[in-house]
Design goal:
The protein is α+β, with helices and mostly antiparallel strands and 396 residues long. The chain has a single domain, classed as Chorismate synthase, AroC fold (4-Layer Sandwich). 31% of the residues lie in helices and 19% in strands. The protein contains eleven helices and 17 strands. The strands form six sheets. It has a five-stranded antiparallel sheet with strand order 8-7-9-15-10. The protein has a four-stranded antiparallel sheet with strand order 1-2-6-3, with helices on one face. A two-stranded antiparallel sheet has the order 4-5. A hairpin with a 6-residue loop joins strand 1 and strand 2. It starts with a strand and ends with a helix.
């Protein structure tokens, strides 16, 4: 079973990412991971933290001489900002210190984990909650998923994303889409494929920043090169679309996920929703057929169809406002203005990169469930055998 776990606080010494279950023999260097970490830090509207950090990983285990060796892959990402927070985040007790918990947070922020986490874990200081609830944790997710992406690339699977909506402004989706979505989107300050919309969005971000406000938006993730048959229809927890939904909804501030036409399918006739199937000789990934359209977004019955997987992810505005909303100070019980620490105006462009990461992880996990293998070569043999068999099924 491919799985990952992360550890670390936003302003602690660093973050730890551990990926377990990856095959041996996968070529892997630190730059494969660092490239994705750098992409996560981009985007117009980000705060000063992105200027402080230059995220890079150190392999602690699982990689030798440029290849994975089959054991858990542990990575350390040091926080450069730690030097400014050592006194505040020191894990040692402070006996006799009149102020053992510096920069305590008691004016909890609406929309954040502060209040509920404080009540759940019986804390007096919401910093014990917000440090882990921070989206900084997604750095470690992107690190683990970068290895999954590298694995999928070996089989011709490409994953990209672009922003389709930000701050009330829709971006036009180009037709046809670029062959390399990320190469095109990463050239935009807001990761949009529509230059006219990009200019409007940048102005909108500037206005929100001046007003001390924040903005949300929607990104689209596209995965191409998948074979038919990842996931399963037989049990609820094996359905790939359900697993994608859970993984993407776990990203901080994400409030909605849809695949293909998504909610729009509820407003259309069946003839306007389902994808007709036609012969397509020489296309073994799909069993030598194809869909005339891709309204389903690449899944049917909880399984991939072989068409591009298309997922959209909606992110709410960030909870930390520079002109804070009203709240209650949990130390006094009195009304107050919420705590305001440095924050982004929007993180939607970065959320697209994080969404790519979660999609890459779920797909790699489903890939290894389907094809197995303890080494890259073994998995490749299994994939080739499967593709040969589904090729025979239609044209045997």
């Amino acid at each position: 079973m491919l799985r990952f776990t992360t550890a670390g606080e936003s302003h602690g010494p660093g973050l730890v990412s551990v990926l377990e279950g990856m095959v041996a023999g996968l070529p892997l260097v630190a730059e494969d991971v660092n490239r994705e970490l750098a992409r996560r830090q981009q985007g117009y509207g980000r705060g000063r933290r992105m200027q402080i950090e230059r995220d890079e990983i150190e392999f602690v285990s699982g990689v030798r001489a440029g290849q994975t060796i089959g054991s858990p892959i542990a990575m350390l990402i040091r926080n450069r900002d730690w030097k400014n927070w050592q006194d505040i985040m020191d894990p040692a007790p402070r006996e006799g210190d009149p102020d053992p918990r510096r920069r305590a947070v008691t004016r909890v922020r609406p929309g954040h984990a502060d209040l509920t986490g404080l009540l759940k874990y019986d804390r007096d200081d919401a910093r014990d909650v917000l440090e882990r609830a921070s989206a900084r944790e997604t750095t470690a997710r992107v690190a683990a998923a970068a290895i999954c992406r590298r694995f999928l690339m070996d089989f011709g699977v490409r994953i990209g994303s672009h922003v389709v909506h930000l701050g009330g402004i829709d971006a036009r989706r180009p037709d046809p889409m670029p062959d390399d979505i990320n190469a095109a989107a990463d050239g935009s300050q807001v990761r949009m494929l529509d230059a006219q919309a990009e200019a409007s969005v940048i102005a909108c971000i500037d206005e929100a920043k001046a007003a001390g406000n924040t903005l949300g938006g929607i990104c689209e993730v596209v995965a191409d090169g998948l074979p038919a048959g990842l996931g399963s229809h037989v049990s609820w927890d094996r359905k790939l679309d359900g697993r994608l939904g859970a993984a993407l909804m776990s990203i901080p501030a994400v409030k909605g996920v849809e695949i293909g036409l998504g909610f729009e399918t509820s407003r259309r006739l069946g003839s306007e929703v389902h994808d007709e199937i036609v012969p397509a000789p020489g296309n073994p990934r799909m069993g030598n057929v194809r869909r005339k359209t891709n309204r389903a977004g690449g899944t049917e019955g909880g399984m991939t169809t072989g068409e591009p997987l298309v997922v959209r992810v909606a992110m709410k505005p960030i909870s930390t406002l520079m002109r804070p909303l009203g709240t209650v100070d949990v130390a006094t019980g009195e009304e107050a203005r919420a705590t305001a620490e440095r924050s982004d105006v929007t993180a939607v462009p970065a959320m697209g990169v994080i969404a790519e990461a979660m999609v890459a992880f779920v797909l790699a996990q489903a890939w290894l469930e389907k094809f197995g293998g303890d080494s890259l070569d073994e998995t490749r043999r299994n994939v080739n055998g499967y593709l040969a068999r589904i090729d025979e099924r239609i044209h045997g």
